[in-house]
């Protein structure tokens, strides 16, 4: 076990030698305890005047919305302290980039390049220490976190320890799954850029299979696409991919748009609850006009053998089952000594501190933050990107205020509204009480997210790609071999190529 960051150095004191004698006529020196007390009082006076003198180690767990934006805010606010070494910021993240998730559906549809959906943390957080790894547990009482890095397995050292003074806990969330037979074997998630690009390749490959097979059962299963979950991720992914696949059929001589079957399964009685009931009903109508089945009040009971069994009795042979039925708190939260709510999120205050734990902060999906703007007492802010980005800014400011002995700010933000894309030139929106649909909503969706994606570099690249995609035709190339780039070489070298269970046609008929 190692310690990545040194512990805080002890106070620099110089004890008096035992044979030290006070010269006659001079005042006796103050005891060391008094000297230390005066030094601490001087330190507090420096803090009260807006200066951070004592070295503070800030640990940010997670490199998503909250993690990246908080570290970025701290970089800006503590620029001088970072230069003179009074502050040290360490960001521990599983990936060296932040994924802008609202762009995942467009990346899956080929409208945006995958590398422009992510923001490299080392470039943006150039004054922070980026550690690619995962925190496995936190002992906040001891101000210590246990983590594994990419080098841990190679070195055989077990795990690492990192000490901190201020903790920002923002590991985000993971997909909320259910114990459904076959889901782990055949389900496809839609939360990361790798999953989005993998799904795009998969959909095009299924069209290739349908175009080349003579077996009608295999063809029908290949052209049946089932999406479970009627939230943002499910509806936007379905809308964009259906739009892309419909366009791609013009290049297949024996696959027509009407040959494909797209199904959206939602357990509740509505979809897109964030945009309101009226816009939700409009979305259902629009999807059905595109021959997309929307099954409300329906659950997935099994997908074993590549057959989706629904609660209404339908059995759908399919090679594509996309699971977007919500998220749950990251498992790391259960491995800490911090207070949690009944739903497993961190209990937080409106100042974004962890309730009852000093020097611990949280925001985003992992935090249950009180909504001080809500009329109903006890309401919490929604775990979405709109709140996460704004909370991160207040969180960064409050850490600076805490280090400087200043009053903390209260997070207060009224929900502006929501926008959702349903494919090229199609969308729904509810902003400041106004409802938009069709092209205006789609345009607002793009403008809003272009303004929110981090860094001018990414904004310019995304805008350029949107412009080029309007001038040229869509790309319909599948690069599924990228997932296993060594397969061809392994076969040429006499080895056994990697086998992907998802490519197995067993059970598709």
TrEMBL record:
Domain FAD/NAD(P)-binding: 57-392
Biased composition (Basic and acidic residues): 500-509
Listed Pro residues bias regions: 7-20
UniProt keyword list: FAD, Flavoprotein, NAD, Oxidoreductase
Entry keyword annotation includes Amino-acid biosynthesis: no
Gene3D superfamilies: 3.50.50.100
The name this protein goes by in its record: NADH dehydrogenase
Protein source organism: Streptomyces brasiliensis
């Amino acid at each position: 076990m190692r310690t990545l960051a040194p512990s805080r150095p002890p106070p620099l004191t110089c004890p008096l030698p035992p044979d030290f004698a006070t010269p006659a006529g001079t005042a006796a020196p103050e005891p060391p305890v008094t000297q230390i007390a005066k030094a601490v009082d001087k330190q507090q006076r420096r803090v009260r005047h807006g200066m951070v003198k004592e070295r503070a180690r800030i640990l940010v767990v997670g490199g998503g919305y909250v993690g990246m934006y908080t570290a970025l805010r701290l970089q800006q606010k503590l620029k001088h302290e970072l230069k003179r070494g009074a502050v040290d910021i360490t960001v521990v993240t599983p990936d060296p980039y932040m994924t802008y998730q609202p762009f995942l559906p467009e990346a899956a549809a080929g409208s945006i390049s995958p590398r422009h959906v992510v923001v490299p943390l080392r470039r943006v957080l150039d004054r922070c220490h980026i550690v690619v790894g995962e925190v496995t547990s936190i002992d906040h009482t001891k101000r210590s976190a246990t983590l594994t890095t990419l080098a841990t397995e190679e070195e055989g050292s077990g795990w690492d320890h990192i000490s901190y003074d201020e903790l920002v806990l923002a590991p985000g969330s993971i997909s909320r799954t259910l114990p459904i037979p076959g889901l782990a074997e055949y389900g496809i998630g839609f939360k990361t850029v790798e999953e989005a690009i993998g799904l795009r390749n998969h959909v095009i490959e299924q069209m290739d299979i349908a175009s080349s097979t003579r077996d009608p059962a295999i063809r029908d299963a290949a052209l049946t696409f089932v999406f479970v979950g009627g939230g943002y991720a499910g509806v936007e992914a379905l809308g964009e991919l259906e739009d892309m696949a419909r366009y791609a059929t013009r290049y297949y001589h024996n696959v027509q748009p009407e040959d494909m079957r797209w199904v959206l399964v939602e357990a509740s009685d509505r979809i897109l609850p964030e945009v309101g009931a009226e816009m939700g009903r409009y979305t259902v109508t629009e999807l059905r006009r595109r021959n997309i089945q929307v099954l409300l009040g329906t659950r997935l009971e099994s997908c074993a053998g590549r057959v989706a069994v629904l609660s209404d009795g339908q059995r759908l042979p399919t090679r594509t089952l996309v699971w977007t039925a919500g998220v749950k708190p990251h498992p790391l939260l259960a491995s800490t000594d911090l207070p949690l709510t009944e739903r497993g999120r961190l209990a937080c205050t409106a100042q974004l501190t962890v309730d009852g734990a000093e020097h611990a902060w949280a925001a985003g999906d992992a935090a249950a933050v009180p909504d001080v703007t809500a009329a109903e007492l006890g309401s919490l802010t929604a775990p979405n990107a709109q709140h996460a980005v704004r909370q991160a800014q207040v969180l960064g400011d409050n850490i600076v205020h805490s280090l400087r002995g200043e009053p903390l700010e209260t997070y207060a933000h009224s929900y502006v509204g929501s926008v959702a894309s349903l494919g090229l030139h199609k969308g729904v929106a509810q902003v400041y009480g106004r409802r938009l649909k069709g092209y205006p909503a789609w345009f607002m969706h793009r403008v809003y997210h272009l303004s929110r994606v981090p860094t001018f570099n990414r904004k310019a690249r995304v805008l350029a790609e949107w412009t080029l995609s309007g001038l040229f035709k869509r790309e319909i190339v599948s690069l599924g071999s990228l997932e296993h780039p060594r397969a061809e070489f392994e076969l040429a070298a006499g080895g056994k190529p990697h086998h992907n269970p998802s490519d197995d046609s067993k059970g598709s008929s």
